[in-house]
Each structure stands twice: as structure tokens, then as C-alpha cells.
Write a sequence for this structure.
């Protein structure tokens, strides 16, 4: 292979997001790609690439059996095609969920101690799974466990788990709680939200700030959360008015994390410096949890502390060639999914959005022309 062709392939590999890198690593027979960081994956893939021994002597690919590909060119082309959706097969939010999935290991490590874990349920064929944001591990729930059938997409589950042979994966041993209710006492709610409506209700949680119910509200970030009482007042208001406060914040300050400990709300925040995988899963989980609450008839206030940080994090996870308005297609799809949640219904189950943004980011085309354009400014 010519030098310029080799350099072109290496550049393409370095441009892949973490999920594409994992897929490519699996194709090349690299062991446990989900446990490795992005830079390590790139180095291992480039080593395989430079060695040129992608296929064994029998014409079979090394590593886990997968798609029949003949060379690294085919692998790269396949990966790019997977993440560049055509008009006939447009990218939707539900497709993005599969990008973060990992291959489960159900082999229990008999020497590991049992611990308590919590996360938001995702359904996958005959098993269910969740990502524990705090412990940064995957937990798998097999269909033979008690209360398995009670678990629905977006449910909050607390379980006793034990480690598998994969150090970053756990297996649920016992379901303790579902949506903060004892598993044996929990029953799935049946609620009909009715027609979509325009609500005239407002949330007045401070002297100069009013949130419009069932709509998209934008809030310019002027101070960090811990620097005034607005957030605390908002939490108290929601509790008094039976509104579920769900907060999504990525790479938040250490001071905010300390401040949050004494305030009641559904916390989907990560501390500064968290991994892309943790941040990405936190975003996905918060969206599914909010939808689940709404479908159960709960009125929800979904507070996104900094929407541009959401865009930035998702951009890091996917192929940069898919850029649209300066962001990856996946970032645009997730952002539009969040915006679509702001809705009021005839019988309840309203979702109100409070979208934080920084004035320094307002030059961003998508933020300015899409997000802020259709949001009600509340300051």
C-alpha cells in the first residue's frame, strides 16, 4: 500500500468516535474493546492495521465472529455507511440507543462480593440492562430473575448485583426497587394523557423568573448553580406542586456536585472530567426517564443545565464526517429529541423544558437558529 493511502486510512481511524472504534476493534479481534479508552483503541487498531494480519490463514477473521469483511478498507467503509443514514433510512433517536450497547457477559465471578447498584432500564431482546452512572459499569438483568417482566424502558431500578468475568460488567442477582417502590409492591401504571394542548399555566419559582408549562424555556447562564438560591427554590417549588424535577448536567463543577447533595431532585449530572461513555449514557438515560415519567401521568420539569455541553459531548462520540450545522448528525437528532419533549396534555403528563445556555456559545448556528429560536426566553 502506498504511503499516502496508508496515511489516509490512519487519519480516518483517528477521526472515528469511541463507539465506531469499538466496532472496528471487535472486527479486528481486539479483546474487550468496551473496557479501553479512545486513545488506547486507536493505538491497538493502528497496530493491527500496520501489521496487516487481519485475516487468518483459513480466510477467517480473528476474534469474535461478525460480518464477513475482507479487509480494513471494507471495515472502514462499512462503519462509515452505518453511521451515514440515507434519506430512505433516516437517523432517529431510537437508532442512537444501540450505539452505546455492549456485548453482555453472563458468566458470574464467584469470588466477587455483591453490591447495590442503580440505573435506568433499557430493553434488549431477552435481557435488560442499565448503565450505573455512579459506578460506571454495565449491569445485565436476565429473564429468569424475579420481577423481570415488571421492568419497562426508562424505569429506575435498584438491584443487588455481582461482578461477571468482565471487570466492567455486573449481573443482577435480585431486584430491590422499581421507580423507588419495593419491587414486590410495584405495578406498572396505565395512564392516558389525552390530546396535546397549549397550557396557560406558569411556574413562578423566583421574583423575576417564570417557566411556561409544557413548552421550551431558555435560560441564559449567568452564574454557576451553587452561587444563588434559584435552583434550591426551584426544587422546593416542584416538590410543593407535585412536579418531578429532572436535571441533566454534563461535566458540572465540583462545587455544584457538593451543592446538589442537599437538594431533592432526579439527578442526571456528571462531574467535570467524566468519560464520554458516562456522559453519553447519562444523556440517553435522562431522556428515557423523562418520557417514562410523562407516560405514567407525572408532570415533569426537565432542566438541561447547559445544552451546548450536550452537543459537544455527543460530537465526541461519533464520526465527524457526519457534521450538520457544525455538529454530528447524532447531536442534532438527540437535541431535537429533547426539544420535542416539551408538551402539555389534556389529562396531565406534561413535560416542561428549561434549557440553559451560555452567551459565549450563541455564535453556534444550531443553538441560535434552532434551539433558542423556538424557546421562550425567561430572562
Amino acid at each position: 500500500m502506498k504511503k499516502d493511502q496508508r496515511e489516509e486510512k490512519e487519519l480516518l481511524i483517528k477521526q472515528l468516535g469511541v463507539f465506531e472504534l469499538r466496532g472496528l476493534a471487535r472486527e479486528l479481534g481486539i479483546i474487550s474493546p468496551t473496557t479501553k479508552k479512545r486513545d488506547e483503541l486507536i493505538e491497538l487498531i493502528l497496530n493491527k492495521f500496520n501489521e496487516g494480519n487481519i485475516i487468518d490463514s483459513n480466510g477467517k477473521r480473528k476474534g469474535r465472529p461478525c460480518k464477513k469483511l475482507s479487509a480494513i478498507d471494507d471495515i472502514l467503509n462499512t462503519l462509515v455507511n452505518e453511521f451515514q443514514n440515507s434519506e430512505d433510512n433516516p437517523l432517529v433517536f431510537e437508532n442512537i440507543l444501540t450505539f452505546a450497547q455492549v456485548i453482555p457477559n453472563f458468566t458470574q465471578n464467584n469470588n466477587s462480593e455483591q453490591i447495590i447498584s442503580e440505573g435506568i432500564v433499557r430493553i434488549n431482546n431477552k435481557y435488560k440492562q442499565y448503565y450505573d452512572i455512579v459506578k460506571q459499569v454495565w449491569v445485565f438483568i436476565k429473564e429468569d430473575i424475579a420481577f423481570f417482566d415488571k421492568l419497562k424502558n426508562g424505569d429506575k431500578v435498584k438491584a443487588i448485583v455481582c461482578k461477571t468475568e468482565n471487570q466492567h460488567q455486573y449481573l443482577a442477582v435480585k431486584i430491590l426497587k422499581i421507580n423507588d417502590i419495593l419491587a414486590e409492591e410495584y405495578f406498572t401504571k396505565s395512564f392516558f394523557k389525552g390530546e396535546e394542548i397549549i397550557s396557560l399555566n406558569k411556574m413562578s419559582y423566583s421574583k423575576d423568573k417564570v417557566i411556561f408549562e409544557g413548552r421550551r424555556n431558555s435560560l441564559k447562564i449567568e452564574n454557576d448553580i451553587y452561587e444563588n438560591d434559584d435552583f434550591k427554590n426551584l426544587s422546593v417549588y416542584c416538590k410543593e406542586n407535585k412536579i418531578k424535577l429532572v436535571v441533566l448536567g454534563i461535566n458540572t463543577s465540583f462545587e455544584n456536585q457538593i451543592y446538589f447533595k442537599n437538594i431533592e431532585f432526579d439527578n442526571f449530572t456528571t462531574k467535570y472530567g467524566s468519560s464520554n461513555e458516562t456522559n453519553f449514557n447519562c444523556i440517553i438515560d435522562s431522556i428515557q426517564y423523562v418520557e417514562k415519567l410523562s407516560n405514567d401521568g407525572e408532570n415533569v420539569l426537565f432542566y438541561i443545565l447547559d445544552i451546548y455541553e450536550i452537543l459537544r459531548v455527543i460530537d465526541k462520540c461519533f464520526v465527524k464526517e457526519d457534521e450538520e450545522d457544525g455538529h454530528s448528525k447524532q447531536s442534532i437528532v438527540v437535541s431535537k429529541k429533547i426539544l420535542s419533549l416539551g408538551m402539555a396534555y389534556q389529562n396531565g403528563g406534561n413535560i416542561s423544558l428549561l434549557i440553559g445556555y451560555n452567551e459565549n456559545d450563541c455564535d453556534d448556528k444550531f443553538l441560535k437558529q434552532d434551539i433558542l429560536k423556538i424557546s421562550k426566553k425567561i430572562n
